[in-house]
Amino acid sequence: MDINEKTKLKIAYSMKELMEHSSLSKISVKDIVENAHLTRQTFYRYFKDKYDCVNWYFERVAQMSFKQLGNGVDLEEGLIKKFELLKKDQRFFYEAFMADDQNSLFQYDYDCIYEFYSHILLDKLGELNGEIDFLLKMYCKGSIDMTFEWVKNGMKLSEKEFAHLLIEAMPMKLQIYLLNK
Description:
The protein has 181 residues and is mainly alpha-helical. The protein has 10 helices and no strands.
């Protein structure tokens, strides 16, 4: 891990620590850098705002779960891994999902999974026709909304149960392309 990655993690961990006692909306960049013993300039060298930091940290979590797909890990296993990582940092992701900002985790997660699934579909189909794209957008929005509900309601379903339900909710026209290796 290089120095830039270590600094970004230090900032993210500082924010996570603060989120144990306060909502994301009440935490300032000043709070984050003071807690991390860094300068504002250092923060802004890596992130445009605190939501950008949340999204960067979330992307690391998503990469740790989905980068294994195609290496003997299927979609459901990738989702389970993602939800295990979300549960591990439950308070952080609760606060991040509750943030109601234009740069929110909700929108960022949607963009990430839409792009992820789109690439798989493009590889298999060559292009996304209107119907497949519509179904994909609906599925992505629904799955993000349900993920938000799962986090907001205390993650009562196990990661495996929740991943299974999301797979079951996937339209059949998407399942034939996304569930087959």
